[in-house]
Amino acid sequence: MGIFTTQVIEHFLNHPTQDLLRAAQGVLRLAKRHGSMRLENACKKVVHFKAISYLNLKTILSSGLDCQAIDDNHVFEKLSSVYKGQGLFQRQVSRNIH
After folding, report:
1. What does the DSSP assignment read for 36-74?
2. Which pLDDT tens digit goes with each residue over 3-56?
3. CB 1 within 8 A of CB 10
4. Contact (CB, 8 A) for 45 and 64
5. If you ran DSSP here, which 8-state letter would residue 16 be given?
6. 62-85: per-residue pLDDT in tens?
7. How far is CA 87 from CA 41, 78, 92, in A?
8. How many C-beta neighbours within 10 Å does residue 31 have?
9. H/E segment holding residue 29
């Protein structure tokens, strides 16, 4: 097991309110099914994005997203115009009359 896989399993085992032993066991099963290197890459992604869950790991591995590099520069490029300040119901400060 690598560093990130260890972090994910420790996250599950040290959760303050939930008993996530089954999730930790599921991570070990994913290593058998997909290999330890792919699991380590997937764990690196969920730790990086602070989205640690068994379902996220399983989705990353089944979709092959573990092979893609983490690129933070292009995360928000595909946002719609609403999120870029061109929304239909957005206030125009220059139109306010005082």
Report:
1. HHHHHHHHHHHHHTT---HHHHHHHHHHTGGGSPP-GGG
2. 999 999 999 999 888 889 999 999 999 999 999 999 999 999 999 989 999 999
3. no
4. no
5. S
6. 999 888 887 766 555 555 555 555
7. 37, 15, 10
8. 18
9. helix 21-34
Token pair 């220059």: residue: 94
Verdict on whether the full-model pTM lies above 0.90: no
Residue type, 1: M
Q: In 10 A of CB 8, how many CB atoms?
A: 26
Instruction: Tell me the residue type at 37.
Output: M
Integer Cα distance of 45 and 71 in angstroms: 10
- What letters, b where the CB count within 10 A reaches 16 and e where it falls short, cover 49-66? eeebebebbbebbeeeeb
